[in-house]
Amino acid sequence: MIRADIHAHTLYSHGKDTPQAMYAAALDKGLEIFGFTEHCPRPAGFDYRNEYRENLARHLPDYAREVTELKAAPREGKNGLCRVLFGMEMDWLDGQEEFTRAACRAYDFDYLLGSVHFIGHWGFDDNTQKDWAAFSQEECESRYTAYFTAWEAMLRSGLFNVAAHPDLIKIFSVEQFHIWLASPESRALLKRALTALRDSGMSMEISSAGLRKPCCEIYPAPPVLALAAELDLPVSFASDAHSALDVAFGFARLASYAQSFGFKEYTVFEKGRTLRRPL
Ligand SMILES: [Zn+2]
Ligand SMILES: [Zn+2]
Fold first, then answer.
1. C-alpha span between 30 and 66 (Å, rounded)
2. How many CA atoms lie within 13 A of 256 on its CB side?
3. 165: CA distance to ligand 1 center in Å?
4. Which of 51, 130, 197, 213 counts the most CB atoms within 10 A of its CB?
5. Does 236 have pLDDT greater than 90?
6. CATH number for position 231
7. Interval 151-163 mean pLDDT
8. Nearest ligand atom owner, CA of 8
9. In this structure, which ligand is nearest to the CA of 163?
C-alpha cells in the first residue's frame, strides 16, 4: 500500500483548496505522510500564459505558516497519525541556478522536488495544446531531447531530493513521445539521466497526474520505469494534487504499476533523512 503522497499544491498557487482542506483529504484517504510542495516563485521572464506568480509571491509566507502549523499538530486519519512534510516544487530554469540555489534555502524544507516545466523560456505544459498540435514529429522530438537534456542537468545539480513527473514533456503529444522513446538514442539519453539520478541519491517520482491530463498515462511511461527498475532506482509516489479531490488519486493503480516492474518499497525524505516504506 502507498501511504505517502509527497506532491501537492494549494490555492496559494493555482490549486483550488487550502492546506487545511488538502490535509483533511489526506486523513480521509488513510495516508500516513502528506507532503506539501507548493511551486516556488519563478524569476521574471519565465512566464506561463496563465501566470500565477503574483498570487504565489504574496501568499508564500501564509503557505509556510499554515503548513508549519499542520506539521506541528498532526491528526489521526483512517490509518492513524498522518504526518505533514514541508516541501517545495522547484523549477529548473536555463541560466538560473543561483536564483534556484537561494530559493532552496528560503525555508527549512523537509525535501525538494526538482521539475522541468520550461524549455528555454517556454512553459511547455500549460495552455500549449495548440502549439503541440501544430508540431511535426521532428519538432516534437527536438523538444523531448531538450527536455531530457535539461532534466539531466537538473539531476546533476545536487539541489533536489525527488525528480518530479519524469516525462512531463509527453503531456500534449503522447503518441509522438512513444515513437521518440523507442529509438536507441533516446534510450541512451534516458539511461544516462537516470544513472545521474541514482548517483545523486534522489528518488524518482511515479505520478498519477498524467492520468488526469491529455496524455492519459502515468508519469513515467513503462519504458522509462523499466530502465529505472534496471538501475534499481528509489521511487516515490505522488498525485500532484491541485485540489482535495486529487489527493492520493490513482494510488492503487500506481502501486500495481510499480510492483509489475519489481519495485517493493518507496522513499520519503524528511530533513535529510531517507525513510523507506514497503509497497
Ligand atoms: Zn510540476
Ligand atoms: Zn506539482
1. 21
2. 3
3. 7
4. 197
5. yes
6. 3.20.20.140
7. 97
8. 2
9. 1
| pLDDT tens for each residue of 7-31 | 999 999 989 999 999 999 999 999 9
Q: Which residues surround ligand 2, an ion (CB under 5 A)?
A: 89, 240
Cell numbers for 84: 505533514
Q: What are phi and psi of 273, to 5 degrees?
A: -90, 145
Alpha carbon 241 to its chain's center: 10
Which pLDDT score, from 0 to 100, does residue 255 have? 98
The boundaries of the domain holding residue 107 are 4-278
**Residues with beta carbon < 5 A to ion ligand 1?**
115
**What pLDDT is recorded for position 145?**
98
Cis peptide bond upstream of 220, omega within 30? yes
Q: Residue written as cell 534555502?
A: 105
Longest Cα separation, the chain: 52
Domain count, the chain: 1
pTM: predicted TM-score of the whole model, two decimal places:
0.97
| Alpha-carbon gap, residue 202 to 188, rounded angstroms | 20
Instruction: Give the Å distance between the CA of 232 and the centre of ligand 2.
Output: 25
Within its chain, how far is the Cα of 133 from the centroid? 24
pLDDT score, position 52: 83
220, exposed or middle or buried, with CB in 10 Å at 0-12, 13-18, 19+?
A: buried
Could you tell me the distance, in angstroms and rounded to a whole number, from the CA of residue 274 to the centre of ligand 1? Answer: 22
Ligand nearest to the CA of 13: 2
Which ligand gives the minimal distance to the CA of 15? 2
Asked if residue 51 has pLDDT above 90, the reply is no
CA of 209 to the centre of ligand 2 (A): 9
Residue 85's pLDDT band, with cuts at 50, 70 and 90, is very high
Ligand 2 centroid to Cα of residue 8, in Å, is: 6
